[in-house]
Amino acid sequence: MPLTPEAAPLTGTPTGTPLGTPLGLPRLAFGGDYNPEQWPESVWAEDVRLMREAGVTMVSVGIFSWALLEPAPGVHEFGWLDRLLELLHENGIRVDLATPTVAPPAWFYREHPEALPVTADGVRHEFGSRGAICHSSPAYRAAAADITTRLAERYAAHPALALWHVHNEYGVPVSACYCDTCAAHFRRWLAATYETVDGVNEAWGTAFWGQRYADLEQINPPRLTPTVGNPAQELDYRRFADATMRENFVAERDILHRLSPGIPVTTNFMTALSQCDTVDYWAWGREVDLVSNDHYLITDGRRTHVNLAMTADLTRSVAGGAPWLLMEHATSGVSWQPRNPAKAPGEMARNSLAHVARGSDGAMFFQWRQSRRGAEKFHSAMLPHAGTESRVWREVVELGAAVDSLSTLKGTRTVADVAVLWDWQSWWAQSLQWRPSEDHDARERADSFYEALYDRHLTVDFAHPEADLSAYPLVVVPALYLMTQAAGDNLRAYVEQGGTLVVSYFSGIVDEHDAVHPGAYPGPLRDVLGLTVEEFSPLLAGQQVRVTAVDGSALVGDVWTEFVVPRGAETVWTYADGPAAGLPAVTRNRLGEGSAWYVSTRLGAGDLDALLGPACEDAGIAPRAELPRDVEVVRRSGESGTYLFTVNHTAAEVKVPVDAPGTELLTGERAAGRLAVPAGAVRVVRLDG
Question: So what's the pLDDT on residue 565?
Fold first, then answer.
């Protein structure tokens, strides 16, 4: 499935059959990051007592503890960790044990200042935060391998060990370094990818602006230049930086697999599109034994629960549809946004169980006990500063009981209705400089299309553009600027075989090297869409256009218009004004057994529904008008049965249809016909049979 060239030295050996679930954890995971090193050891007994009261089943330990485990070069102190793991084991709490390689100690940087990353404009970061790592540094790689080896040798057979947790949130806050060590590594990557300097020149189009190289040694990272640099070089450097981080993960993973066989290995992703744009999670998902994810609400005034659902669906898709694990989220407010409101009563449980509905086999938090010191002391926790006489603590205890009551659904899979295509590498390419409009944002298009599907009560799988799409009656392409010919062929075959495709503007424009496909836009999508685009005509800030249908209905677009020429496609909506007045705005093309829709302007989520309605009719997807807005109905199914989740984000009780009788697991009540779900509540029905 890989779209783009990757050097063999930077890819690890796939894990084969995923281990898939924390060892010795028959119930769902409930707990969080536990950082006892921030507290006197006398506090630990109270922590564990309260964990048992809250129903904690697993905690993550040691993520930032390198300086305590190795206080001086070659000097190791494991006694405190021995005592901690024994205490947790005695109390029946499983351990997700981390390699602490996200935060090397101060002594390491004193000995190896070259391991601190350098920005594109030549500034070297300093020690004093986290994630300040040049991932090409031989010294860092050796030190990370050593501490990982020592942890694995010591704890491989520990009875509390359920899961290995490598590093922390790769790509946050630094993914790419531009130092001389990275420059040399980049040249090796290019040699493995393209073999010769002529291959690089061809891929990057270096004939433009006289950028041709005579030797690979002449090539540096895309550092600061007087004006925009070579976009293909920048795109390849993002691939290189991502692959370099992944190589380091694989090195640690392989040590753990060798020394601690049978224990799954994960690292916590950040698939929320707004929170990490430097990691290709399609590639990373193939390297972990269990996909885990951190998710934090972006409280910017929008419907935060929609982004939560989108992130959970994306994480499940990265896991190939298998159950995954919510490794971190917040009990209440966070500390790093401009404004950090507390969660409303009941919101923590609703957020947590919405993740479970969409495939997570648990709900874990950052962190267990709220810190008194450091950058995140105002970040909420399971045990807040206010202690056990607090609303947050009471809700944590209630949630622990709720999660425990759902344990029979462990291992079941979420059932999706439609697919949305997404590709991180296309997003990287789209985000480079000198595109037709800086107002066009691939992530915004994904958000808007997802919101429109969410409001139609459709559960979404995300898919790679070259993936098998035959299981989905409807496939949506919100923004795929970079598209290989193979992806285009895949979409054509999908439609010919009876699928319904919806494509948004500025898709299918360039190949994997950011070179425009030969001929008219949209390259490999021309035939399946039955049209060509002669020219883009982005709108100025604040401009809008009206698009109208033959029945007089009108929609409003902004940001973008195009001069579309139908070549077999029928016009469904027409530009009523603006630069493309009189030309097609939305088209539909019948091809083989299916149909392909194209929308050439930016429609908001509400207006997108007018397009998705007839597209769903083409796909044979019946409307679900009986479900209120902001009420989610999601299914999980497997050997233990079928589970119907209803998540009510509204301020009023709702009644939703239940298509078979069953037992509501959070209350123990029987459910049939229509299920009453209180305001802000979640209900989970295990259907009979």
Answer: 98
